[in-house]
Amino acid sequence: MTRTTARIAHLRAAGVSFVVELCDPLPRVLHWGADLGERGADDLAALSATADGAVLNSAPDVPRRFTVWPTEADGWSGTPAHEGHRGGTGTTPRPRLAGADVGERELTLRLDDEVSGLALTLVYRLDAAGVLGVTTEVARPAGDGADGAPYDLAAVTTLLPVPARATEVLDFTGKWCRERVPQRAALAHGSHVRSVRRGRPGLEAPYLLALGVPGFGFRDGEVWGLHVAWSGDQRWLAERLPEGAGVHGAVLGGGELLAPGEIRLAPGESYTSPESLFTWSDRGLDGLADRFHDRLRARPGHPAGPRPLTLNTWEAVYFDHRIERLLELADLAADVGVERLVLDDGWFAGRRDDTAGLGDWTVDEEVWPDGLGPLADRVHGHGMQFGLWVEPEMANLDSRLAREHPEWLLGPSAGLGPSMRHQYAVNLGHPDAWAYLLGALDTIVTRYAVDYLKWDYNRDLLEAVHRGAGGRDRPGVHAQTEALYRLLDTLRQRHPGLEIESCSSGGGRVDLGILARTDRVWASDCNDPVERQAIQRWTAQVLPPELIGTHVGAPVAHTTGRTTDASFRLATALFGHAGIEDDLTARDAGERAALTRWAALYKEKRPLLHGGRTVRADLPDDAVLLHGVVARDGSEALYCWARVATSADAQAGRVLLPGLDAAGRYRVRVRDEPGLPRLHQVSGPAWFAAALDGWVTLPGAVLATAGVPLPTLAPGQALLLDVVRTD
């Protein structure tokens, strides 16, 4: 096979290099990772000259190369870049480079494949944060129709190589009220594959797939990561073959998981993959998080201004929508400093429990004889924003929508399967159903000057097919996801100031595809602070705190039944887009005064919390956590020291405060607005006792290099440390 080097593209940003050799027949990735610096042609040629491995025994007679579109033609025996066929033929593609455009931080590759008859366009964009976004368009030329058969596209997988030293894999699993649970393992020979078949990322979503050097942590170690920015079915993989991937050790890849027959390309049609976001860090997982946070904050549509303190009514009133009670709740919310009140489930026609009414997006006249106006006016009159809960993608069978338009439901012609949470999906791919939902939402937002929608999505998509004539049903998850995006985009275009939250049984749809058109996520239905400490810790691996809803719940958690102290609940909820999920009418004056102090602290610290760098400490004891946010200029920081369980060790010893400058000098104090924690000790440490009374000055070398002894907290307690640089 002829192999010639045309030129080398070198994209650089934020300490990252991505180097691609534009060679014949296919380009190959020479390097992705640490910045190689400004390199001339000779140095890049040397990188190319050292990019071929050995010819192995019982192997192809040329060195294997891992190209930008790996196939069997390269000697690649792992997951191919794309899979498909045309009437059972054209299954062994041999694409060739047809053209390339190289910019400062963008590379576009155009490939043609005579075997499949497809034209491929790969776009690599390295943003200012060092995140590499990759999309692929697979197109069938308009004139390619001689045999009349569609091209059935089975998979498109974006694959990048990683070095042999990356041998440990991290991703996530979870369940309702325990989302984003990390799981780690050695990457053995073979494939580590995560397939999502729920029509949403799911409560057990992989979220981030990372490969790193053994033992990588929050603050240390070299790590390569991937996030698939898509809200439907997904496939993620880390793969290691005995012969490697060219001179690389393994590959990292992902994309949309397509159902058989879901994408059938006729002449002139194309498919564009979801964006896969690849990140690299030599500063552990916090380094990856920095890149994602910087990328998101640089978006033109990133939420601007202070994130309003929110009260959601669900755990306050549930379906008990009495106007007098809700007006009192709004008044008390304004008194404690709430800036946005969200009326949750139960306001629309026939909705007295979760078995009926879903799909009928008009106000229930029996419960709200004067409409929502009295409550919306009271909320706006207090200077607060008014929000509503909606679940437009779903319907109960006991609803006007389902009775009058059963053809709008997403499900087989042979009949619907079992319900989930008493509901079924509305087929957003049906133009009439889509238009109805847009009109209903547009009307309610306009009529009541709604500032905010909590957009929920409470079931998996099972047997998600579009009904066809004669029972010829077609897979529908891809079309459903694209129609959702169009619905959100159109609604936002009509109401530019409207904010939307992505909720999905809590944290079941947390991805950067949905966040391209929403303003925050509900990380979990669980407000128990013991669970929330872990959920928020790992949600922040991709999302900055201002995009993560973090609410204070009642003393007895609705989801776990666990009783926790107010100080622990308040300190935990501070580190995100904070809010209240509790019935203020059931709290006494002292409890509401504590909420008022906490609300003032949130407003004081939110410029730091929502603009600084998230840091997390690596500790040997899983029962304690130390996390915080450090200002980008290093001028201040706020840390949370929390204990979720007892430990065998009586004390933690010296603990490093991550993110501080060892050469600096700092003042430290304990913030007591949430209330002080209960301690599992007699007294001390001495510096801590002094910090309870006021500022204590300490050098950065002590705080960040030697560490300071932290108090031993009782389980279910948290402490806030306020740090200000003085030099």
What does this structure look like?
The chain folds into three domains: 71-297, alpha-galactosidase from lactobacil brevis (Beta-galactosidase, Chain A, domain 5, Distorted Sandwich), CATH 2.70.98.60; 310-392 and 430-461 and 499-610, Alpha-Beta Barrel (TIM Barrel), CATH 3.20.20; 614-725, Immunoglobulin-like (Sandwich). It is globular and about 80 Å long. The model is unreliable at 1-5 (pLDDT under 50). The protein is α+β, with helices and mostly antiparallel strands. The longest helix is centred in the C-terminal third of the chain and has 21 residues, at 589-609. The protein has 13 helices and 40 strands. α4 runs parallel beside α5 (373-381) and α7 packs parallel to α8. The chain is 20% helix and 30% strand. Strands 5, 6, 7, 8, 11, 12, 14, 15, 19 and 20 form a ten-stranded antiparallel sheet that branches. Strands 21-22-23-26-29-30-31-32 form an eight-stranded parallel barrel.
